C-alpha cells in the first residue's frame, strides 16, 4: 500500500502532498519536513530507496524517490509494494504530467496543483495502483476538463440569456404600466 | 461591500512574491479572511474558486478547517466543477477523526447511484481515500452494484474502493468475494489489476478465501502467460515489457496462493520458469517482474532446479552495476535467509563486499544480511569483516552493528578468549553505542573464565591506559582491575609481551578515572570500589587509597559519598573485616538479583498457558530456551532437578525458584501413620493461582525413647498425576521429640483427578528395621478439587 505521495522542490517547499492514511495536519507537515530532510541528504548516484522516517512508520516503510531537476517525487510505501515497480510508477506519473501539461515544469505544478491532484487520482486510489495506461488516463482527464468547460460555457450563456430576458420583461412591464395608466 | 477576490493563480503569484515567511503569512491571513467572508455570503457560483485557494494554502501548512462545511456544500451541488473541487477538499480536509465526515455519506450515495460516470468516479475516489468504517458499511451495496456496470472506468474504481472497504470493515469480504471470479474474465487491464488486488486482500485476510481462490490459479497463470508471450503492445508496455504492473501483481497473488500448497505450486512451476528466462532485464520494468518471480519461486513449493535458478539470479544481481538492483537483491536475500540459509551462504563473499558501499541504504542492508549469515563455521572470518566495518561505518549504523556483533559473538563464540577479545574490541571501537547490558555480560563472562582472568585484566589495563573516555570499557576495566589486581602485578605472562606494571601506576590510573570529567557517576562508583578492593590485593601500604577514599567522603554525588564514607569506616573501625569483605567475588549468577521479577513474570506466563487447553510444543520449547538462557554460562546451582520434556511439567518447574513459598491454603493437616511413637503428618499447600499444583510436606516426628535412623519415605500416585519427590531434610529423627524430618512432595494434577497416595516407609527403630506400605485414606477433598 502506498502511504503518501509527496512532491517538493530542492528547498523543501511542498508542491503536492497526498496522504492515504489519516494524519493530523501538524503530523503531515512534520512528515513533509522529515522526508525532505532525509531525501536531500542523498548523493546523486546512490540508490533510490530509503528507510522511512520515524513519523511515517519507521523501518517497515520505505521512501522511494526520484529527483527530476528541481523537484523530488517521493512515494512512501509499505513492504507489500515492489520497489522497482514503484520506481516505474513514478516514471509513468511524470510522463503523464508531461503529456497533460506539455513539457511540464515546476511552475505548472505550482499554478495548477488541483489539476495535478486530478491526474494523480486517476492513477492511484486509496493507496493502490488504479491505472497505468497513460492514454487512458489522459483521455479521462481531457473528458473531465471538457465537461467543466462546457458547464461554464452553458452557465455563461444562461446568464446572458437571462439578462436579455430580464430586459424584455422590463419592457413588457413598462408597456403594461403605460397602458394601464392610459386606461386610468 | 464587495471585495474583489483573487483568482487562484493571482494568489499563488502573491505568495511567491513574498520575501519573508512573515510576509507570506500576512498575505495568506488576509486572503483567508476574504475566503471566510465569501463562504458566509459570497456568490455560490464562485465558491469552488475560494475552496481551491483554501486547499492551496492548506498544502503550505496553514489551518483550513473552516473550509470543511464548504466541501459538503460543493459536493451537494449539481455542477461538475463544484463537485470536483468539493471532493478534492473532502479528501484533503476531512478524515474519519472529524464528525463532519459522515455528512457527505448521503451525497456520495446519490452520486454513486445517479451521477454521470465522472461524478461516480469522483465519489468512489473520495470514498476509497477517506471512507471510515461507518461510511463503508452504509455504501457497500452501492459499490457492489457498480462492480457490474458496463463501463470499465467506473468498475475499476469500484473494485479498488471495495478493497478499501474490506480493510475498514472486514465483514464486507462476504459481499465482495463472489464477483471476483467473474471479474477475472475481463480483458480490461485496469479491471484485472483491481481484481487481482482485491483477491490478494481477501486471501490475506481469511484462510477460507485463500482456499476458495486456489481454484483460479490456472486462470491467473493463463493471464500471465498471455502477457508474457504477447508481443509488443503499445497500450500497456513500459520499456518493452507488457504491463509489468499487472504481471507483478499476479505474481504476488500466485505467491500467496501457492505457499504451502503442492498442487497449486506444481501448476505454476513451468510458467515461472518461462517468466524467469524470457523477461528482458535490460530495463527496470523487466527487473521488477524478474524479482517478483524470484520471490514467488522461493516462497512456494517449487522444484529444486527452479530454486537454484532463482538464487543464482539474485546472485547475479548482486554484481549488477545499478545500485537499485543491488539494493533489491540484498533485500530479497534477507527475506530468504531464514528459509534457504545454505543457498544464501554461497553469496556471502559478495554480501560482505557490499559492506564497503558508500551508499548508506546499501550498507545497512548488507549489514543486516551479514549478521544473519554468521554461523558457527564462518564466525571468525565474518567477525573480522564486521569489526573492520564497525571502525569505518556511518554513525547511525554503529549501534546496530555493535549490538549485532555482540549477539553473534555470544551465540557462536568458538572460545572464551576469542569472545572476550571480540567484546573488548567492540567496546574500544564503539563503546558509546553498545547497549547497557554489555557491561554486565562482559563482567559475567570474564568472571566465569578463571583461566583468562590474568589475560583479561592485562588487556583491559592496557586499553584503559590508552583511553578513558569510553564508559562501558572503563567500567569493565575498573571492575577487573579491582578484582584481579594481584594478577596484574604478577607480570609473568607468556601470551602478551611482559609488562611490568607498578602499583603506583595502577592506583594513578584509577584516580585518573575518578577525577576525569568524562566519567559518569556509575563509572566513578566502579573506580572507587576497585580502589578499595586493591587495598587488599596490593602489597604496598594503603595510604594513597585511604587518602582518596577520605577525600570522596565529602563528594557532592550521594552515591559516591556514601560509598566513600563506608569504605573509610571500613579502614578505620573494621580493618579486621576488610580482607573478608573485599575478597574475590563468587561468580554472579545471571538470574541473580532479578530472580523475583523473573519468577513473577514466569508465574504469569505459566498461568496464561495453563488457561490454554494444551500448551503447544513450541511454547514449551521457548520456555525451555528461557531456562537455557538463564543458566548458560554460569552453571546455575538452582537449576530445577527434574526437567522432563512434557509441556505441563516444564511449566511447573519454572516455578521451582528461590522465591517465597506460596501462602498456605487452609487445608487441614492429616496424620497418616503412627507406630511406637513415630508419627507421620501430611500438610497440604495449594496456591489459588496454580490449582494444578499440590505441595505436600510430610513431617516425621519421634516421641519414643529410641532414635529413628535410615528413614526413607517413598510415594506413589495414580498415573494421571505427576509426582516429584524432593530430598528430605535428613534421615534421622532423634528420640524424645528431636528435630523432625521434613520432605516435600510436588504433585501435578491438571485434570483434577481424585488424589490417591500410597506411601512406603523404611527405617530403623529400636534396633529393628521397619517397613510399612500403606495407602493414605481420608485425603481432604480440597487437595485435588
From TrEMBL, chain A:
It is found in: Cytoplasmic vesicle membrane; Golgi apparatus. InterPro entries: AP_complex_ssu, AP_mu_sigma_su, APS3, Clathrin_sm-chain_CS, Longin-like_dom_sf. The keyword Glycoprotein does not apply. Residues 1-147 form the AP complex mu/sigma subunit domain. The keyword Protein transport applies. CDD domains: AP3_sigma. It comes from the Eukaryota. Pfam families: Clat_adaptor_s (PF01217). GO terms for biological process: Golgi to vacuole transport; intracellular protein transport. Its main location: membrane. Keywords: Cytoplasmic vesicle, Golgi apparatus, Membrane, Protein transport, Transport. It is a peripheral membrane protein. Gene3D superfamilies: 3.30.450.60. GO terms for cellular component: AP-3 adaptor complex; cytoplasmic vesicle membrane; Golgi apparatus. Part of the AP-3 complex, an adaptor-related complex which is not clathrin-associated. The complex is associated with the Golgi region as well as more peripheral structures. It facilitates the budding of vesicles from the Golgi membrane and may be directly involved in trafficking to lysosomes. In concert with the BLOC-1 complex, AP-3 is required to target cargos into vesicles assembled at cell bodies for delivery into neurites and nerve terminals. Adaptor protein complex 3 (AP-3) is a heterotetramer composed of two large adaptins (delta-type subunit AP3D1 and beta-type subunit AP3B1 or AP3B2), a medium adaptin (mu-type subunit AP3M1 or AP3M2) and a small adaptin (sigma-type subunit APS1 or AP3S2). Interacts with AGAP1. AP-3 associates with the BLOC-1 complex. Belongs to the adaptor complexes small subunit family. This is AP complex subunit sigma.
Amino acid at each position: 500500500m502506498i502511504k503518501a505521495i509527496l512532491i517538493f522542490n530542492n528547498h523543501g517547499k511542498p508542491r503536492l502532498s497526498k496522504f492515504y492514511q489519516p494524519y493530523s495536519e501538524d503530523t503531515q507537515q512534520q512528515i513533509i519536513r522529515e522526508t525532505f530532510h532525509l531525501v536531500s541528504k542523498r548523493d546523486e548516484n546512490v540508490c533510490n530507496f530509503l528507510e522511512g522516517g520515524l513519523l511515517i512508520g519507521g523501518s517497515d516503510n520505505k521512501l522511494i524517490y526520484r529527483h527530476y531537476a528541481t523537484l523530488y517525487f517521493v512515494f512512501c510505501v509499505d513492504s507489500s509494494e515492489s520497489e522497482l515497480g514503484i520506481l516505474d510508477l513514478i516514471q509513468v506519473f511524470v510522463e503523464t504530467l508531461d503529456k497533460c501539461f506539455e513539457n511540464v515544469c515546476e511552475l505548472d505544478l505550482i499554478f495548477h496543483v488541483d489539476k495535478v491532484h486530478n491526474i494523480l487520482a486517476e492513477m492511484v486510489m486509496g493507496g493502490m495502483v488504479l491505472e497505468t495506461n497513460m492514454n487512458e488516463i489522459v483521455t479521462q482527464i481531457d473528458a473531465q476538463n471538457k465537461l467543466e468547460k462546457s458547464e461554464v460555457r452553458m452557465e455563461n450563456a444562461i446568464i446572458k440569456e437571462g439578462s436579455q430576458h430580464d430586459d424584455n420583461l422590463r419592457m413588457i412591464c413598462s408597456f403594461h404600466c403605460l397602458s394601464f395608466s392610459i386606461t386610468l | 461591500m464587495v471585495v474583489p477576490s483573487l483568482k487562484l493563480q493571482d494568489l499563488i503569484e502573491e505568495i511567491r512574491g513574498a520575501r519573508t515567511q512573515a510576509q507570506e503569512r500576512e498575505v495568506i491571513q488576509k486572503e483567508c479572511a476574504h475566503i471566510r467572508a465569501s463562504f458566509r455570503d459570497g456568490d455560490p457560483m464562485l465558491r469552488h474558486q475560494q475552496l481551491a485557494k483554501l486547499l492551496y494554502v492548506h498544502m503550505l501548512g496553514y489551518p483550513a478547517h473552516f473550509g470543511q462545511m464548504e466541501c459538503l456544500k460543493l459536493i451537494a451541488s449539481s455542477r461538475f466543477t463544484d463537485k470536483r473541487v468539493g471532493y478534492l477538499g473532502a479528501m484533503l480536509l476531512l478524515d474519519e477523526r472529524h464528525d463532519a465526515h459522515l455528512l457527505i455519506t448521503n451525497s456520495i450515495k446519490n452520486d454513486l447511484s445517479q451521477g454521470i460516470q465522472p461524478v461516480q468516479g469522483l465519489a468512489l475516489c473520495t470514498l476509497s481515500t477517506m471512507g471510515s468504517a461507518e461510511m463503508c458499511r452504509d455504501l457497500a451495496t452501492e459499490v457492489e452494484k457498480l462492480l457490474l456496470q458496463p463501463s470499465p472506468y467506473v468498475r475499476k474504481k469500484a473494485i479498488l474502493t471495495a478493497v478499501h472497504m474490506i480493510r475498514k470493515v472486514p465483514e464486507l469480504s462476504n459481499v465482495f468475494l463472489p464477483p471476483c471470479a467473474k471479474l477475472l474474465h475481463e480483458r480490461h487491464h485496469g479491471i484485472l489489476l483491481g481484481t487481482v488486488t482485491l483477491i490478494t486482500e481477501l486471501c490475506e485476510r481469511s484462510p477460507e478465501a485463500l482456499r476458495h481462490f486456489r481454484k483460479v490459479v490456472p486462470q491467473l497463470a493463463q493471464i500471465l502467460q498471455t502477457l508474457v508471450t504477447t508481443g509488443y503492445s503499445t497500450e500497456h508496455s513500459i520499456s518493452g515489457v507488457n504491463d509489468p504492473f499487472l504481471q507483478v501483481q499476479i505474481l504476488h497473488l500466485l505467491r500467496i496462493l501457492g505457499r504451502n500448497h503442492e498442487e497449486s505450486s506444481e501448476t505454476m512451476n513451468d510458467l515461472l520458469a518461462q517468466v524467469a528466462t524470457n523477461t528482458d532485464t535490460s530495463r527496470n520494468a523487466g527487473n521488477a517482474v524478474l524479482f517478483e518471480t524470484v520471490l514467488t519461486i522461493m516462497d512456494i513449493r517449487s522444484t529444486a532446479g527452479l530454486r537454484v535458478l532463482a538464487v543464482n539470479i539474485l546472485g547475479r544481481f548482486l554484481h549488477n552495476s545499478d545500485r537499485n538492483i543491488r539494493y533489491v537483491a540484498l533485500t530479497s536475500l534477507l527475506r530468504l535467509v531464514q528459509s534457504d540459509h545454505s543457498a544464501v551462504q554461497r553469496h556471502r563473499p559478495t554480501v560482505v563486499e557490499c559492506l564497503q558501499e558508500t551508499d548508506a541504504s546499501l550498507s545497512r542492508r548488507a549489514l543486516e544480511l551479514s549478521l544473519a549469515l554468521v554461523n558457527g563455521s564462518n564466525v571468525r572470518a565474518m567477525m573480522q569483516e564486521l569489526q573492520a566495518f564497525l571502525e569505518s561505518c556511518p554513525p547511525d549504523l554503529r549501534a546496530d552493528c555493535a549490538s549485532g556483533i555482540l549477539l553473534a559473538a555470544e551465540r557462536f563464540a568458538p572460545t572464551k578468549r576469542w569472545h572476550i577479545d571480540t567484546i573488548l574490541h567492540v567496546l574500544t571501537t564503539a563503546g558509546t553505542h553498545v547497549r547497557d547490558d554489555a557491561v554486565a555480560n562482559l563482567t559475567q563472562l570474564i568472571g566465569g573464565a578463571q583461566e583468562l582472568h590474568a589475560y583479561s585484566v592485562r588487556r583491559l589495563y592496557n586499553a584503559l591506559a590508552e583511553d578513558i573516555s569510553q564508559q562501558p570499557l572503563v567500567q569493565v576495566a575498573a571492575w577487573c582491575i579491582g578484582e584481579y589486581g594481584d594478577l596484574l602485578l604478577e607480570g609473568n605472562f607468556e601470551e602478551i609481551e611482559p609488562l611490568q606494571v607498578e602499583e603506583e601506576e595502577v592506583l594513578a590510573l584509577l584516580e585518573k578515572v575518578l577525577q576525569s570529567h568524562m566519567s559518569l557517576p556509575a563509572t566513578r562508583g566502579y573506580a572507587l570500589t576497585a580502589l578499595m578492593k586493591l587495598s587488599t590485593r596490593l602489597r604496598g601500604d594503603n595510604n594513597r587509597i585511604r587518602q582518596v577514599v577520605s577525600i570522596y567522603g565529602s563528594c557532592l554525588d550521594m552515591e559516591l559519598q556514601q560509598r566513600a564514607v563506608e569504605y573509610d569506616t571500613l579502614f578505620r573501625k573494621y580493618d579486621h573485616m576488610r580482607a573478608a569483605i573485599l575478597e574475590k567475588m563468587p561468580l554472579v549468577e545471571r538470574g541473580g538479583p532479578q530472580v523475583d521479577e523473573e519468577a513473577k513474570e514466569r508465574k504469569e506466563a505459566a498461568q496464561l498457558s495453563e488457561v490454554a487447553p494444551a500448551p503447544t510444543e513450541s511454547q514449551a520449547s521457548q520456555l525451555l530456551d528461557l531456562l537455557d538462557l538463564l543458566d548458560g554460562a554460569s552453571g546455575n546451582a538452582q537449576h530445577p532437578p527434574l526437567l522432563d520434556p512434557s509441556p505441563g511439567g516444564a511449566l511447573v518447574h519454572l516455578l521451582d525458584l528461590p522465591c517465597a513459598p506460596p501462602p498456605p491454603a487452609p487445608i487441614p493437616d492429616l496424620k497418616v501413620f503412627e507406630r511406637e511413637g513415630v508419627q507421620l503428618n501430611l500438610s497440604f499447600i495449594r496456591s489459588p493461582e496454580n490449582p494444578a499444583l499440590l505441595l505436600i510436606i510430610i513431617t516425621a516426628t519421634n516421641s519414643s525413647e529410641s532414635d529413628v535412623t535410615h528413614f526413607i519415605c517413598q510415594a506413589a500416585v495414580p498415573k494421571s498425576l505427576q509426582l516429584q519427590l524432593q530430598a528430605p531434610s535428613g534421615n534421622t529423627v532423634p528420640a524424645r521429640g528431636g528435630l523432625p524430618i521434613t520432605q516435600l512432595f510436588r504433585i501435578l494434577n491438571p485434570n483434577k483427578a481424585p488424589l490417591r497416595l500410597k506411601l512406603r516407609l523404611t527405617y530403623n527403630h529400636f534396633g529393628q528395621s521397619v517397613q510399612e506400605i500403606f495407602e493414605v485414606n481420608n485425603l481432604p477433598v480440597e487437595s485435588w478439587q
